[in-house]
Write a structure and sequence with these properties.
Chain A: The chain crosses the membrane at residues 20-39, 45-69, 110-135, 147-162, 169-187, 258-281, 318-341, 361-381, 469-490. Chain A: InterPro entries: DUF112_TM. Chain A: Residues 20-438 form the DUF112 domain. The complex is a heterotrimer of chains A (544), B (169) and C (335). Chain A has a two-stranded antiparallel sheet with strand order 1-2. Chain A has helices spanning 5-14, 17-35, 41-48, 57-82, 91-102, 106-131, 138-141, 144-161, 166-179, 206-224, 243-264, 270-285, 298-313, 315-321, 327-338, 347-350, 352-381, 388-407, 411-428, 433-457, 463-466, 468-501, 516-519, and strands spanning 183-184, 191-192. The longest helix of chain A has 34 residues, at 468-501. Chain A is mainly alpha-helical and 544 residues long. Chain A has 2 domains: 5-466, no CATH class; 484-539, no CATH class. Chain B has 169 residues and is mainly alpha-helical. Chain C has 2 domains: 46-137 and 259-324, Bordetella uptake gene, domain 1 (D-Maltodextrin-Binding Protein, domain 2, 3-Layer(aba) Sandwich); 139-257, Periplasmic binding protein-like II (D-Maltodextrin-Binding Protein, domain 2, 3-Layer(aba) Sandwich), CATH 3.40.190. In chain C, strand 5 (163-167), helix 6 (173-185) and strand 6 form a beta-alpha-beta unit. Classes of the chains: A mainly alpha (544), B mainly alpha (169), C alpha/beta (335). Chains in contact: A-B, A-C, B-C. At the A-B interface, helix 2, helix 5, helix 9, helix 10 and helix 18 of A face helix 1, helix 2, helix 3, helix 4 and helix 5 of B.
Chain lengths: 544, 169, 335
């Protein structure tokens, strides 16, 4: 196979000491920057572009790719330790990662994340080397209707990440969808819910919302009950995941790699969807789904593996079609332009050593991350031994300064304060913030593609199901939604029949009772009375 | 503060313990208020979406999608209200809830002045208030801690990384 | 009472420590004192970009900032304040001191096209700024999938097909250019807005839409590779990088749409300061690294004087408004 030799040459390029050094610098800078939530990898790379003018193109790109990876891992660190997800694709990691940290197992969470990332990257790069030409057209077959179906499936998955009352989870998701509509409408130019503020014209950024309802909301909530919930764990034990935990998460890492690779090929939203899908799948296949959200290792392993596999496979559209799949890769290739290299469909043919140098450097970046995690994770988890009363102002400052850097505007600081209050109130009233943030991320993807499809179909909704890929996706969607609904209706009728036989049975207000068969495995759920909305059943295994 | 023997606890036991240490559940009134807020939000969304125009299926207008979401939200809000009596996952507000208001109050001045006088002084002040009054740390820890935090932030983000936060020095 | 005193003591102590250890570093806040223009430049000159980092406006700003800073012998930090196609940054610049220490890279589309799509109070007028210099011209090209068999606009018209055309968003030059073309050619078409150039281009490649109007820099690699066919460019004259592709005007349609960029300072900045800045940016334009950058990004230098920029952009705004009126084009809520 002549497709392998440039790959190996690419490794030769990366292994040069100078390139390794720049890769290391990139990963370190990325990690530091990743701690500040507002400053994403795209912005950091743009800011550091001038630094790369003096070095060789390959070296420059290797450093920039290192920043990309380091920032992702930096975001994972803050997600686990402080509940601050810097990137949409690590939102899902927060649920179990933070729960693990509170149990003194932050090291386990971070270690598993590093291992998962490494494996996901490895699987993805092998698949990329061999499969890229075969699946070249896959991304192009995804038009607006297919993205609509995918986003709908994603929203459905959002309901699976929550542990509390399903009804409230759906309410939170709807609020997230509504928040995603703020800003200038991309189709008519109309200002929606901006209250004539120019700062809102482009909508609300992900960072203030995620930082607010997760990070700040949590701090405020803990402030109120400092004596109870915010105690630091008594000891920060087992820095490295145990053999048992590794075994426990090996399935999750395997499945996450595949899901991440496949979904990562789609430009736009691939990484977010893949982390969400991987988490949803793990919860579905788990023997005891109720562990999720309370510190399940698989809940960290799956999304972290998937988003890394997706980041690597997002190079496929670039490799085969010349399309940058996300903003960060677009900036990296903007940097190539400045270096006099034209990225595009011919890049791989014209500059194979450069292309594979970049891809392989991401891989080396993963190995470096894995090696560095061993000593660094031990250092990072020490943060958790700091008293809550001292950690809180540090987190608040990171949040306030971080959101400022999103658009260099104080407006976002006010926004994060407002969303912090919202996050606190949600927690007080028993709403989970996760569905809100995830629905917000998927909201504009869903709306824009649904409306785009309708324009293309001239209002004929049957177009959604007559196209092969979107037809299959919609069929999957309806099976997932309708089957449990049908089962619910069937059981409800049975319950009604039973009531006819025993007229003294349950009255109308607590229809929850007929749910007891499936509700039994959710013993620690708060509010069992809340679990009988139809959506609840989409995520449960029906017991015969 | 009485620390339980934490090492022996499994994740499940820990979760259960946190569950127990929660403040008492709020009654139906709080649930009704939450449901009311959701309904109000939904209705406001419906009204604003209608004023934007819903359009048709072939040419969906700016208000079409928000209208669908707001309507769903309103229905869900009504469902929440109906079940207000049988829901137990809301928590009561107590006197300690006032600290939350105080904490929020410290952030507003920070946002107001950071663009004018740089982040250093407001950040040090905010950290100090959080340490001394919200965290009940000692004077010494509070003063040293707040200054140290700002210095570390400055060194990492301004000097080392050149991040564009407004800074005085 | 005691509490407050101590709070203040803490703050003063903190401020003092910082002053003592880091006094040499200098802040980035800038003074507000009136300037006569003689003492310019006095400290760092901030260049604001109204778009996200990594976009073409951002890259242009960063490519210019380096050599211009060298000529001024002061640093020139680049700050992104994205929002509403640059309107957020432009409105903010209006309130800055008119001393030349704060500049911005502004887009012609914000001045000439955005007003067609947004409400009155969001409109930014170039007359409210002092223009230092024009920078460069970025052209839109209409591309089709080779599978369509179309080589020219005429092929497209003759096909008699209802054309779905992708644009890079509402209120952009991409939307204006394709709307104008299809309206004048009498082609029945549907406007499908995407979120930027890359998704619109992907849609043409995947035959989700028939054609799209995209900035040349984004489409060029695909054109080179033969994966996209350029039908027309929308500039007034042929583009130097696509000599063989006719302009829309040559093909008989009145569609003169290009993206221009310029450097502006707050209104009332002293003439001497503006002159000094113009000199600095001239030096930047002459810098070989910058010229290479222009070629790499397929930008045509358009380094005209400030007065010419005002004249050109105001004329463009008026002619777009007239054309939109004449052909009854719906660009958004304002029309």
């Amino acid at each position: 196979m002549d497709s392998i030799s440039p790959v190996i040459d690419g490794f030769g390029v990366v292994m040069q000491p100078e390139n390794l050094l720049y890769c290391l610098i990139g990963v370190l800078v990325g990690m530091l920057v990743g701690v500040l939530p507002g400053l994403g990898p795209a912005a950091t790379i743009a800011i550091l572009l001038p630094l790369t003018f003096a070095v060789e193109p390959v070296t420059a790109i290797i450093m920039l790719a290192g920043i990309f990876y380091g920032a992702q891992y930096g975001g994972t660190i803050t997600s686990v330790l402080l509940r601050l997800p810097g990137e949409a694709s690590s939102v899902v990691t927060v649920f179990d990662g933070y729960a693990l940290a509170r149990q003194g197992k932050a090291g386990t969470a971070l270690g598993i994340a590093a291992i998962g990332s490494f494996v996901g990257g490895t699987v993805s790069i092998i698949a990329l080397t061999f499969l890229a030409p075969l699946i070249a057209g896959f991304a192009l077959d995804f038009g607006p209707p297919e993205y609509t179906a995918l986003a709908l499936l994603g929203i459905l998955l959002v309901a699976t990440v929550s542990n509390g009352g399903r009804l409230k989870a759906v309410v939170a998701a709807c609020i997230g969808l509504l928040l995603a509509t703020v800003g200038r409408d991309g189709f008519t130019g109309a200002e929606r819910f901006t209250f004539d503020s120019l700062s809102m014209a482009d909508g609300i950024d992900f960072v203030p919302i995620a930082m607010g309802v997760f990070g700040l909301g949590e701090i405020l909530y803990n402030l109120e009950q400092r004596d109870a919930a915010s105690r630091p764990p008594a000891k920060v034990a087992n820095v490295w995941p145990s053999r048992k935990e590794l075994k426990q998460s090996s399935g999750a890492i395997g499945r996450g790699s595949v899901i991440g690779f496949v979904l990562g090929i789609l430009p736009g939203g691939g990484a977010v969807l893949s982390s969400l899908a991987a988490y949803g799948v793990e919860k579905k296949v788990a023997k005891d789904p109720s562990r999720f959200g309370k510190g399940a290792v698989e809940g960290v392993a799956a999304p972290e593996t998937a988003n890394n596999a997706a980041a690597t496979s997002s190079f496929i559209p670039l490799l085969t079609l010349g399309i940058p799949a996300n903003a960060t890769i677009a900036v990296i290739f903007g940097a190539l332009l400045i270096q006099g290299v034209t990225p595009g469909p011919q890049l791989v043919e014209d500059n194979p050593e450069l292309f594979w140098g970049v891809v392989n450097s991401m891989y080396i970046g993963n190995i470096l991350l894995l090696i560095m995690s061993i000593p660094l994770v031990g250092l990072f988890v020490k943060i958790l031994q700091i008293r809550g009363s001292i950690l809180a102002p540090i987190t608040v400052l990171i949040t306030l300064i971080g959101v400022y850097t999103v658009a260099n505007s104080t407006f976002d600081i006010f926004l994060v304060v407002v969303f912090g209050l919202l996050g606190y109130l949600m927690k007080k009233f028993g709403f989970e913030p996760g569905p809100l943030v995830l629905a917000f991320v998927l909201g504009s993807l869903l709306e824009a593609n649904a409306r785009r499809s309708l324009i293309l179909f001239e209002g004929d909704v049957s177009g959604f199901v007559t196209r092969p890929i979107s037809g299959v996706l919609f069929a999957a969607f309806f099976i997932v939604v309708l089957l449990p609904l049908a089962a619910f209706a069937w059981r409800w009728r049975k319950a009604a029949d039973a009531e006819l036989a025993h007229p003294s049975g349950t009255d109308g207000t607590d229809g929850a009772d007929d749910d007891s068969a499936t509700g039994a495995d959710d013993t620690t759920d708060r509010g069992p009375a809340d679990t009988d909305t139809p959506v609840a059943h989409t995520t449960r295994k029906e017991q015969p | 503060m009485t620390e339980p023997a934490r090492e022996a606890l499994t994740p499940e036991e820990l979760a259960a313990e946190w569950e127990e240490s929660k403040p008492p559940a709020a009654g139906p009134v709080a649930n009704l208020i939450a449901a009311g807020a959701v309904i109000a939000f939904g209705v406001a969304g419906i009204l604003m979406s209608l004023s934007l125009g819903a359009g048709s299926l072939g040419e969906p207008d700016a208000g079409s999608w928000p209208l669908v979401v707001s309507a769903t939200l309103t229905i869900l809000g009504i469902a929440l209200a109906v079940r207000a009596g049988s829901t137990h996952d809301a928590e009561q507000f107590g006197r300690s809830s006032l600290t939350v208001l105080a904490a929020l109050a410290t952030m507003v001045p920070f946002a107001l002045v950071v663009g004018v006088i740089g982040f250093e002084i407001p950040a040090a002040l905010l950290a100090f208030v959080w340490l001394r009054f919200l965290g009940r740390e000692s004077w010494r820890v509070s003063i040293v801690g707040s200054v140290l935090m700002v210095v570390v932030f400055y060194l990492i983000f301004v000097l080392a990384l050149g991040v564009s936060i407004p800074h005085l020095f | 009472m005691q509490r407050r005193t101590l709070t203040r003591t803490g703050a003063v102590a903190g401020a003092f420590l910082l002053t003592a250890s880091l006094a040499a570093c200098g802040g980035n806040l800038g003074g507000d004192e009136e300037s006569s223009g003689e003492d310019f430049p006095d400290g760092a000159v901030t260049l604001t970009i109204g778009q996200d980092p990594g976009g073409s406006t951002d890259l242009i700003g960063r490519a210019l900032a380096d050599p211009a800073a060298k000529d001024l012998d002061e640093s020139m930090p680049v700050v992104n304040k994205p929002g509403a196609n640059g309107a957020v940054a432009a409105k903010e610049l209006e309130g800055k001191a008119a001393d030349g220490q704060n500049l911005m890279v502004i887009n012609a589309s914000l001045i000439a096209i955005t007003p067609l799509a947004v409400s009155e109070d969001e409109v930014v007028d170039i007359e409210d700024y002092e223009v230092v210099t024009g920078i460069s011209q970025d052209d839109y090209v209409l591309v089709a999938n080779p599978a369509s068999g179309w080589k020219t606009v005429d092929d497209l018209i003759k096909s008699g097909k209802k054309v779905n055309f992708g644009t890079t968003g509402v209120g952009t030059g991409s939307q204006l250019s394709s709307q104008l073309l299809f309206n004048q050619a009498g082609v029945a078409g549907e406007d499908v807005p995407f979120d930027g150039g890359a998704p619109a281009m992907t849609a043409v490649l995947g035959e989700q839409v028939d054609v799209a109007s995209i900035q040349l820099g984004e489409a060029y690699p695909q054109i080179e590779a033969g994966k996209l066919t350029p039908l027309v460019v929308f500039s007034k004259e042929r583009n130097q990088y696509l000599e063989d592709v006719p302009t829309a005007i040559e093909s008989g349609y009145d569609v003169p749409v290009s993206q221009y960029r310029a450097i502006v300072a707050p209104k009332g900045t002293p003439e001497a300061t503006i002159d000094r800045l113009e000199e600095a940016f001239q030096a930047a334009f002459d810098d070989p690294a910058y010229q290479e950058f222009n070629e790499g990004q397929l930008l045509t230098p358009h380094e005209i004087s400030g007065d010419e920029v005002v004249k050109e952009w105001t004329e463009a705004r008026d002619s777009y408004a007239a054309l939109v009126e004449e052909y009854n084009i719906d660009m958004g809520d304002a029309s």
